[in-house]
Amino acid sequence: MPRTIKILDTTLRDGEQSPGVNLSPEEKVEIAKHLERLKVDIIEAGFPITSAGDLQAIKLVSQNIKEPVIAALARTRQGDIDLAWEGLKDCRRPRIHTFVATSDIHLKYKLCKSREEVLEMTAAAVKYAKKLVEDVQFSAEDASRSDLEFLCQVIDTAIKAGATVINVPDTVGYQIPSQFGGLIRQIREKVPSTDNVTISVHCHNDLGLALTNSLAAIENGATQVECTVNGIGERAGNTAMEELIMTLTTRGDYFTDFATNIEQHHIYRTSRLVSKLTGMVVQPNKAIVGRNAFAHESGIHQDGVLKEKSTYEIMKPESIGLLDNKMVMGKHSGKHAFKNKLKEMGYEVSESKITKLFERFKELVDKKQIISEQEMEVIIEEELYKVPEYYQLVYFQIFTGNKFRPTATIGILKEGELIEEAACGGGPVDAIYKTVDRITGVKTKLLDYSIKAVTEGKDALGEVNIRLTDNGHIISGRGVSTDTLEASAKAYLNAVNKIVKKRGGLYGDDSSREDTSQSRGEGNS
Ligand code: KIV
Ligand code: ZN
């Protein structure tokens, strides 16, 4: 009978700590619904002391998600633990996750605490959390660089205080798989009380070893793995859930003793949603979910795959729910067929949204006649996960060429009023962005701009992703159109609308800016 490895997904907490990622509570709920569909065992929904938004997100996720355990992170301070509990109060299966660093480097330079003090903080925090919830997870931050004897002492203390899960993080992604597997084995041997709790691991990917370290830990007794969708997270990120799951199933012949509860055919859709809402573009050669992961370029490979897929394919694209690029809908497809297609693709959409989506589909089909599932997915996602359009693009006109200074004229709807402006720029995109700035008055700095085709073909939909800063906050935007300049304008307006939303609307008091400033990793003093 294989041992079940529990999956704790921390996309909404550690993943959200990726530079430039800032998910709203509603976006977190959307991602949590996908995680529930994937059947993750635990969703870590946030770190409430860091912002009012995080606390609100934990509350919303707790109210909307029924099956998985919901965890909230807290340092060992009582105030942190109280806030975690406040977020989780309505949750069916709450877990408080408290942590303190255990390595000498962290004790000396960050916490300014002695080992004795850390032992006391551990016991006090776990006992305090235990009065509020039954399920308490304790993490020894920087465990992998901690003195083994002291680490074991801290773990034993946490278990005796009531911890039900002990997490051993490789916080800075420093470990080598055989070493990390050995660490888990030694902890189990040296701390007999670990027999009665779940041993978890949380590996960062600084050396590209997060997945292999997690696998080594599983082989040495870990029964919970923490991971994120697309591997996002602090610095180089965390163990990518899709890589872990597909390794365990694709190499089920090797990992015969282990299984998870994950329904892997939801992987691709979840990956896309996380990429869209976080603004973190998935690199093309990313294992499992990158756009090239199932593409065969060389003639020899293509020939082999045409003759027999298993020559070069170890996984089936459909096993992660990757859509076929087959052409599906055209000019003559009516609303009924469209509705059926949505259903077939797994979307449950209200009647009013279907009408809106069908309008978008008709606009697109006028321009490009035949539409593939991938293109359908892009417009569906754009409509379903829209931010409020305080500023809405009505029209744009560009005058450009290699001998002229590009000029943009743009019409934007704001509260029902059409505002028109024009501006010149170094290029057509620059001219568009300067014109939008004039209309909205929102001052931003563009950090990144990237464009890619959603599918093959000269008439493919173009997808523009941008990242910009607004008063030190990084905001992402995405826009899709058959016209790349229109996609550029939409991406910029998408980011500007997010900024306006964050400020509390067109006339907001901007108070939301203050609340994310508290450092997430600071000491427990
Ligand atoms: O990387 C880390 O150590 C963490 C802990 C809070 C679990 O994210
Ligand atoms: Zn981490």
Structure, explained:
The chain is α/β, with parallel strands linked by helices. The chain folds into three domains: 3-278, TIM Barrel; 323-384; 391-510, Alpha-isopropylmalate synthase LeuA, regulatory domain (Double Stranded RNA Binding Domain), CATH 3.30.160. It contains 16 helices and 18 strands. The strands form five sheets. It has an eight-stranded parallel beta barrel with strand order 2-3-4-5-6-7-8-9, surrounded by seven helices. The chain is globular and about 70 Å long. It starts with a strand and ends in a 23-residue tail after the last helix. The model is unreliable at 511-525 (pLDDT under 50). It binds 3-methyl-2-oxobutanoic acid and zinc ion. Zinc ion binds next to loops.
Helical coverage, percent range: 25-40%
Q: Determine the CATH topology of the largest domain.
A: TIM Barrel
**Rounded mean pLDDT score:** 91
Please identify, by name, the CATH architecture of the largest domain. Answer: Alpha-Beta Barrel
Overall shape: it is globular
Q: Total domains, how many?
A: 3
Percentage of β-strand residues: 15-25%
Based on CA atoms alone, the radius of gyration comes out at 25 Å
Measure the end-to-end span: 46 Å
Largest sheet properties: 8 strands, parallel, barrel
Number of strands: 18
Number of helices: 16
* Order of the strands making up the biggest sheet: 2-3-4-5-6-7-8-9
Spans where pLDDT lies below 50 across 5 or more residues: 511-525
